[in-house]
Design a protein that fits this description.
The structure is a homodimer of 328-residue chains. In chain A, 57% of the residues are buried. Chain A is of the alpha/beta class.
Chain lengths: 328, 328
Amino acid sequence: MKIAIDAMGGDLAPQEIVLGAIDACRELNAEVILVGLEPNIKGILDSKQITGLKLEICHASEIITMEDHPALAVKAKKDSSLVVANQLVKRGEAAAVISAGSTGAAMTASLLHLGRIGGIKRPAIATPMPNRLGVGVLIDAGANADCDSENMLQFAVMGSIYAEKVFGINKPRVGLLSIGEEETKGNKLTLETHELLKESELNFIGNIEGRDIHQGNCDVIVCDGFTGNVVLKLSEGLSSVLFGQIKAAVAANCLNTLGGLLLKPAFGKLKAQLDYTEYGGAPLLGLKGISMIGHGKSNAKAVKNAVRAAMKAVDQGVVSKITAAVNR
Amino acid sequence: MKIAIDAMGGDLAPQEIVLGAIDACRELNAEVILVGLEPNIKGILDSKQITGLKLEICHASEIITMEDHPALAVKAKKDSSLVVANQLVKRGEAAAVISAGSTGAAMTASLLHLGRIGGIKRPAIATPMPNRLGVGVLIDAGANADCDSENMLQFAVMGSIYAEKVFGINKPRVGLLSIGEEETKGNKLTLETHELLKESELNFIGNIEGRDIHQGNCDVIVCDGFTGNVVLKLSEGLSSVLFGQIKAAVAANCLNTLGGLLLKPAFGKLKAQLDYTEYGGAPLLGLKGISMIGHGKSNAKAVKNAVRAAMKAVDQGVVSKITAAVNR
């Protein structure tokens, strides 16, 4: 299977994207199509040892930037790396697409070119959420700012399939993010969703609260895209503030610096545990193809791990499993 | 001014509540009425040196527990410490009420007995949110799971007055919690609220995102009570997971333990910065009286600091300032 990568999307593109693609080919035996400005991609590849790697370039003359209006740019820039990469999947020339560029543009392009699975009302972003004991899936992480309870039920179904097939979690525990454990606690949306989840065949464990998100007592966290996006960015922001303050404290005096040196391996491990690059990307689920959205800051490691997740999702038939589940 | 404290509310009641009241009298020269089972309160006071302190007991024979249904219990248990404490404020015998018991019951009791300020549609909880540079106010932290944009505008007005009067922040920067900085980003509720805030006389700085919450670039964070409650509990949960993991790492081997010892003062400072007990309690704003809701785990320090905040709110005329602002 070939994975199409938007080589021009992301804060560190094309350099880190291309390096990540090379690593994916080398370490995961992946087949990759790098889509973007050929001279730029070649310029990076030229200095690397890539003989024998299954690495192709597909030229695309335009770039969608963070300043572009997502929907307009996807329609106007037909020869952009993002659009061309999605079309490769549409035409069956690639099995999945990965982009670390504008999330809005990536969603629009995949929605437009891959299309929704029949029966799915709203595709949703399933983002890996590191927790105390491992990793779970948060769905929706921002594709749908306003949702209804039927959307939420479909998010739960899709997230559950992804957690099982890609993270290898047997019978994933599905929790509904709310503001109290009791089923009578929540807003109108979660109260209605709770009823639907209770009647579903999912392994629904009930409501969870904000404090449970990082405890690891739930594998699939279901919420609307507004709440999910706040949760995601808050988790990232708070971790970074805390680590920043520890770093400042370590630099404050000699004793602290010594303490910091002694604890460096432990801090490194802790940081790695929370590190999004370990998981690479978040799929936009509900489409007739695998589309992985990378973090804007994606480095080579994140790109490589996004390729790994995309390959696994294809390999495990996530799209057909979702199609079957919603059309039962 | 006298402050009525529900001595029986909270996980550590009555012991820590009574000790906090003593500290408040001693350190802040507060006048406190401890409301609850007289023998129990007396039993704690008897072993303490309280001569000269302005400390009274007001007997109340019933207790509202966490197992009680909030609304039903407030109506049924008319001689509960929570209801009696609120009635003291209603009758003008106390200037403010503090409870660390069931949040739902505390809200119901204050709403019922103190009553809403005319013009205020929905009272809201304004919770202190520690950040990298100090402290801000998050409103609504959970009183209203479903809100409309007019509610949100009033939350912004009330939060702004509280931040200015109690935290001494001049022209507090008001941010609307959303999922993108641009005013076109958000859900239906935040898009509508953005318009209202833009036209208001508040120091509105636009949308903020989850990652900004702990950065300290905003003094009043406005959101619906569902999102606010998730934010609050997530922040608490993630900090506790991170500190827990650092603690485990420090215990893992001798070098780490030494590192931990050297960094102990720094960690202590960092923890104190995030510590809710520093700020004591969160007022339910929009009522004809000051009602402070304490954290369920409130210890003596939290109670003392809740008394401090309540005294300041009374002193600075927060209720009359809100009344004037909404009836302009």
